[in-house]
Records
---
Amino acid sequence: MSLSRFLVKRSLQGLFVIWGVITVVFGLRFISPGDPANVLLPPDVDPEVRAEVIAELGLNEPLYVQYWDFISGIPLGELGNSLVTRTPVAARVLAKLPATLELAIAATIVAIVIAIPLGVISATRRHQPADYGATVFSLVGISTPNFWLGVMLIIVLAVQFDLFPTSQRPIGVDGIVLLFVSGSLGEAVNGLTTWLWHITLPAVTLGTYFTALITRLTRSGMLDQLGQTYVRASRAKGLPETLVRYKHALRNTLIPVITVIGLQLGTLIGGAVITEAVFAWPGLGTLIINSINARDWPVLQGSLIVVAVGFVLVNILVDALYAYVNPQVAYD
Amino acid sequence: MISERTLRNLRRELRRSLLAKIGIVVVVFILLMAVFAPFISPYSPGKQNLDEARLPPVGFSTAETREVTKMENGSVVIEGGEVVTEERTVYTNATAAHPLGTDGNGRDILSRVIYGARTSILVGIFGTSLAALIGVLVGLTAGYYRGRVDDVLMRSADIMLAFPSLVLAIALVGVWGQAQAPIPDPFVVTGLAPAFRSALGFTTGMPDTVVLPGTVIVVVALVNWVWFARVARGEALSIREEEYVKAARALGASDGWTVLRHVLPNAITPILVLATIQVAAIILLESALSFLGFSGADVSWGFDIALGRQYQSTAWWISTIPGLAIVITVVGLNLVGDWLRDALDPGIEGEGGV
């Protein structure tokens, strides 16, 4: 199968999964006890007013009409209106998305920058103190709940030593770019420092699990590669050890590592939800939690759809990238 | 089901690996703590004593500046009809009565850690069992029948995988509410634990029920069955081509019989390895749900971490200690998982973590 046919097939599968996701999210409302109209109405409301609100929300329509209304708006980017604020859900989700993406990307950068060197050092100095250190770190790292790590970082670095703020996001990358474009360079630099200062603890909190995971993968991948015949052959023909390690072995190690990073993006978003709760970070996670507490159905459903669809799209992208960088892949 | 050779590999790997030994010791320790909680817990986990709130753990003391009534020669100083107050540094010392300190309501943290183990272990074991039951059933069916059945089942697994597990779990628990079933604690209702306690001189009574967090167990299973389905399907796909399976079918065995009698027993090793890792992942998931206040549990390590947050600048131990309990438990389970994987080498990928 050619690469393009593989991509078409993969996209069709993705489309099916997206349809499934939307249907599951639609169904979520029906497993919940209680009526969405109750969110808007006091319990002792006049039955006529109640019937009116239910009609207005379209809740008395047959199921297939409700389903069609729900699903047909989505390709146009319509996710309905919030029950609480009566504003479009899509706009609210979009407004919260940058904060979550910033956090996820910052955490990924933290993870890659620390984990790959650590994994390489660990593999090339096997059974030495550095290797044991890295192994223990990655074991504890994958076993630590990140919300607890966040609380610990706050207690030690924010409360005791006052090095970082405990929470909040006073400025985002979008704000910094805006300042930069409008020519206030000094303020843009200030904004950037503030942003870095505020995102450090959340990014470390969210990134630690991935740092640990990628360290483990890089270590075992490197060990595997360094034992291959081509490495021995390169050494035998007199290639410098640094070239053997970093040009050949590391490059082959990174291919599966990149795939795992892509596949773990779902875990990353899940982790972001709870990290946001710890640091009062105003992203999608905070929106999801608030919408559950307020029983604001459309907002919860819209956020879930955006998260899941984003995840499916990223996975297709990762598959394509993987197929592109690794010509040996079998497309099936 | 588990062959002599498998047991030999397990023993050999255990002799070789210090980490595997540590893992087993930790897991057994936590299990015993959870099972025998009413025997060993110094207090009831819910017993409040506001006079003893926020006592630090043994080895620590706290200094706090407080407004206190001014005393002279043992009596209150009154000037102009008002009680005079003064600022004084109050030192709080640890007491041996609360070795891990107390929380904001004066509840004993050691007792809460011991009882919290029950919540984690219950959700971990029942959640994993239910996830395995669903996942193995789906996976074996998909792998055994292949074709259209396989397509439908595995595509629905893909749909589940498109949701980040924590997000889906929050949404499900959030919309479902938090059903919990109190079941009688056998050690307390039979009088065994109370007799043991009074012999030791403990005075407080223990709760006579164990709370089974029903919704949380169902939700973590619904979120995690997919991993079992994938592994079981892979095994079924290869095992169905084995001669003994073909032979069984040629002899007229039904599909159900063939799967249960021939495919499942030969797929059990990787499923067990996955289950070990999944218990760890599900314990982490439960703690996250409790931390966010969605699980409804009132004795849970994750919930206690959240309770301690309001004292994060004055009483660090309230959040710190239950978190350490989670880390130790999950490290132990992961070490056992590594041991099983290294010894049995089923070549599966694990997933977990919050």
Note: Residues 248 and 258 of chain B are 7 Å apart (CA to CA).
---
Amino acid sequence: MSALNILNRPASAGCDRPVLRERGQHEVFCGLTGIVWLHRKIQDAFFLIVGSRTCAHLMQSAAGVMIFAEPRFATAIIEERDLAGLADMHDELDRVVTQLLERRPDIKLLFLVGSCPSEVIKLDLSRAAERLSQKTLPQTRILAYTGSGIETTFTQGEDSCLTSLVPTMPTTQDKNLLIAGTMADVVEDQFRALFAAIGITNIGFLPARHAGEMPAVGPNTQLLLAQPFLGETVKALEARGATRIDAPFPFGAEGSELWFRAAAKAFGIAQERVTPAIEAPRERARRAVARHRDTLDGKSIFFFPDSQLEIPLARFLSRELGMRPLEIGTPYLHRGILGADMDLLPDALVSEGQDVDRQLARCRAEKPDLTVCGLGLANPLEAEGLRTKWSIELVFSPVHGFEQAGDLAELFARPLERTSRLRV
Amino acid sequence: MQLTLWTYEGPPHVGAMRIVTAMRGMHYVLHAPQGDTYADLLFTMIERRSKRPPVTYTTFQARDLGGDTAELFQRAARDAYETFKPEAMIVGASCTGELIQDDPAGLATALNLPIPVIPLELPSYQKKENWGAAETFYRIVRALAQPKPPRSGTHPTCNILGPCALGFRHRDDLKEIKSLLSDLGIAINVVAPEGASPADISRLADADFNVVLYTEIAGPAAEFLKKQFGQNFSKTIPIGVNATREFIEEICALAGLAVPVEMDASRLPWYSRSVDSTYLTGKRVFIFGDATHALAMARVAREEIGFTVCGLGTYTREFAREVRAAAADLGVAPLISDDYLEIEKAIIAAQPELVLGTQMERHIAKRLGLPCAVISAPVHVQDFPARFSPVMGFEGANVLFDSLVHPLMMGLEEHLLGLFRDDFEFNDQAAPSHLGPSKQAQPETPPDFAGWTVEAEKELKKIPFFVRGKARRNTETFARERGIASISVETLYDAKAHFGR
């Protein structure tokens, strides 16, 4: 399908591609990991995981790269006496929350984050959040969501978090553009400026940088996703009247162009008006991406499931850099949200879910030039002679939009560049 | 419920992973949800191991909970056996697995696998990582170690117990201690868990005695081997010159050998006595870590470098008694805690000039603008250095001298700083010049003694920041003892003369 026609595709497209579904050992983070970027994004929010020592250990190990003297996340560790019923879990939670808010009176928004243990023992955190909120409002709002690994995979934690924010968003009747999904602040600022040039100025970003600034939503809200892993958030926003704009994700020059054009179309703005606004950044993006084409053109790539960004990234790498996707693994495939990207994908095996040992066997057999995988697999695969790109970096770096397209390409080029440099 | 910002130890099943990951021919089937697979990256990223840990996670999901998670466990165990063909297997549950009460032990036994299957009970809501490692190693030894055949050789032999995955400098300590034992003429029967196969574990009893390097990991296994097979084990941890000498004496006694006359091979004694090191004398150090390393570092700091230990603590509650005794000997209050905030408070109160701690104390020291060296797990990727850097044995003592001294300001630099306090590029906030130009946070602590005059407060500011806290505290003590209500510049200098070093 030609790129611009993608904006006129029927909603049912993208559904006919066969998908390999696997159910075995998953080697992916749980949704708690989203806290690592969410707690930096919402600057007056605190994330309190109600879980086990394992949850606390996961956070500091996954975020072990993050050196903060005092992060805005913590774990209320469930202990034997809580489980044995010697302590009332809700009283204990009240005590911990009070202790926390006394220590951090600057916190405006506190998330109680459910974990595997809290889900299994059916600790009702939503109820706890409601009860505690009555004491702490208006100073601090308390919400609850689950980041548990039995219900969420890695980036789904953000979906779950944003879903919990939707009921707190103000209502509006105005026609506005709501962009959902955490992005770097600098990217948001670029997008705001570009949309203004196109003629869309009433824009909100979810999540906002501060708890009190969450954007408004209503029957005239056009919803544009910046991240593909927000299925539940979309449902909640649609229930509040928003209409989702179907578009490929804004990775690369082409992806970003189509994303802006889809928004313009939804606002009834002529495509001729979009062209001058995005021309200069699009050309810059093309030039920046082209610099890496020699390194990546014709190289094969294999994606292990991780962030749900795999499909849009494979689309970008194949269409703009000439890479050949062999397998595109995703932990969860939302066909509605990813339809436009799916339609632009070349032939490749798309797999959903995981059986890590089988997938490793496929990967070894295919010997891809580059393997995108999680931190647990990367060094072992490097040691076997495969070149890898850690997928977590794709979530932690500014990679959206025109100005970051070259940086995104560079993330994939660097492992290959390293191989060509090293003589040791 | 305990509010936790950072945790010193992971859950006990991570301890079990540290044992199996160190071993060969072993596999661990863990009833756990997908999030628990994060633990793999501890080994592959932080320690840069080139193989995945030999762990199969059942990764059950919410939708499985209504169905048959037990069947899921059995399938995972069967598949793991088929795929990895281990010589022995351990089975257990993580914190969430424990809650669903599927009985991995019974389920695994019912599979009738043709290999030893060792069940683990690691209570996640009571115990922690080191306990889990020690318990796992003990269970493996207990299940696999066979009685001793009649001895044929005459050379004394020993096992080395304790080195495992993700340990602080275990890899290099092992190399250093192996060479030390070989110099003494002692043959090594088995090293475990690091590098040991189930078959190796089965012949542990062949050795005459055991060398225990990390009591936190190998203590229970060594006790068992003593009780079961009459193997004695060493108790001295060879960290520092003096402890290494004592270790050699203890080993020679266990092996029935004469202690060699000439054995000192460390540069530390001369370096500490060389004139440059007078700037180390009496420097206040705060020490926190696992019990083994905290205790050993306290001794090195005091006896072998001449520091003043102003705080000593551990997160290893199992060894609280030993740490309390050592703290009493040093005249400081022991800190037995795994509450990061409490430890931060204690460090601020102790006003150290150097912090020796874990990755967590590195955060604290960074925030307070204090120099810091990491001397114990938990550690990060930079604490698995490429170079050979043991902390045990005589080479370990050399390494310790370097790592304890390196973060500090050099002697003359410190003096110059004291002379020209307002130098625009070389002042209070300057980092040691060999550590780059980074601007450090001001370690100001709010005055808790109201009676400072403006002039005295100003004078205090002229004192270099790294001794300012000490000067403030000494002056206040001095004033309190003499009933002085208002601290003037005079009082400040009176106190300086009184406490002067």
Note: Chain B touches chain A through 56 residues (CB under 8 Å).
